Amino acid sequence: MCISLISSIRRTILICSFPRIMASRQSSDMPKFKEALKSAKEVVILSGAGISAESGIPTFRGAGGFWRKYQAANLATPGAFRTSPSLVWEFYHYRREVAAKAQPNPGHIAIAQYEAKYGTDKTITVITQNVDGLHVRAGTKNLIELHGNLYKTRCTKCKEVLVNNDSPICEALEGRGAPDATVVGSDIPVKSLPHCKKTGCGGLLRPHIVWFGENLDPAVMDKAQAAMATCDICLVVGTSSVVYPAAMFAPQAAARGAIVAEFNIEPTPATSDFHYYFEGPCGTTLPEALAD
Ligand code: BJW
Ligand code: ZN
User: Would you say the CB of residue 53 lies under 6 angstroms from ligand 1?
Assistant: First the structure.
């Protein structure tokens, strides 16, 4: 899908949603929310880039969402990879290195501890749009990674998906990926980029990530929708709620009567759909919300 069409859809969504935010009244009554959480049997936590912001990983929208002169969303497309696999691999090499050095923060840890404590009494599912692996590193077990993972590759020829934690992922990317806006172009020959090692294949590898205009893995999507369809409570944490299909999950749950609480540093186009809004860095608000 072309970028201008995506931008115009997004603008329409924003324009349609913000007047409702101003007119609506979300509760920020933490004790009341915690009471509701206590009696919930099925809990979903839907996270986005904001939960990793306090670990030093840039979010997509806003000031940090640029790498060189590019908006991240312009590089996370099949078209960008076709045009310059070298540039896209540099971008992902940089992101792999940043995420590998980052540590889970109190938000990730609060979620993992909550699951460890209540995961036998309740069904607790974490659905993340993030690809940085920090939920797993914090100890979360029941996790659905909607948009893939920075440390998985997929062969463009045989489609094999493999975990790959190599740093750098190939020799040619050593010292590459600098985010500096003055760096122009990318000239790594395709043959020097990561390739499939399967006998008789040798196809070019790509990050196992869902790019714009690509369908989510149907099995992953089914799992996420099943959890969303039956949860009593959903915590929506650090997402701008503008990227579909994830953006529709929590509003749909709220519409069928599930209690939905948003944790964000600022309102989003979906805030008015929800019962609770807890403003502030989720590294602070989540530990409070999930503690006894
Ligand atoms: C804090 C904080 C702190 C900061 N504490 N909070 C239906 C309607 C309209 C459009 C579409 C539609 N269906 C599909 C589309 C097209 C497209 C889309 O949604 N476009 C929109 C932009 C309009 N969707 C797709 O293409 C999806 N595919 C699909 O649906 O296929 C079928 C189809 C295709 C085409 C047409 C129709 C149907 C695929 C989406 C894949 C998204 N991929 C990305 C890139 C991954 C690659 C990578 O990481 O490199 O995933 S995009 C990017 O956005 C990334 C994120 O996971 C995703 C969501 O972003 P997120 O997490 O919300 O981050 P931010 O930065 O936006 O927000 C951060 C938030 O945190 C902010 O609110 C801050 O305030 C907050 N925050 N610090 C708490 N400390
Ligand atoms: Zn292959």
Answer: yes
Check whether residue 93 and residue 155 sit in a common domain. yes
Question: For the segment 213-248, what is each residue's pLDDT rounded down to a tens digit?
Answer: 999 999 999 999 999 999 999 999 999 999 999 999
Same domain, 29 and 155: no
CATH of the domain at 30: 3.40.50.1220
On whether both 68 and 52 belong to a single domain, the answer is no
Q: Is the CB of 210 under 6 A from ligand 1?
A: yes
Q: Which numbered atom of ligand 1 lies nearest the CA of 73? A: 52
The rounded distance, in Å, linking the Cα atoms of 151 and 153 is 7
29 shares its domain with 154: no
Listed as ranges, residues in the chain with pLDDT below 50 are: 1-23
Q: How far is the CA of 176 from the centre of ligand 2 (A)?
A: 24
Q: Which atom of ligand 1 is nearest to the CA of 215?
A: 31
Q: Are strands 148-155 and 70-71 parallel, antiparallel or unpaired?
A: unpaired
pTM of the model: 0.92
Any idea which ligand is nearest the CA of 67?
Answer: 1
Choosing from 7, 9, 54, 60 the residue with most ligand 1 atoms within 8 A of its CB, the one to mutate for a pocket test is 60
Report the distance separating Cα 33 and Cα 27, nearest Å: 9
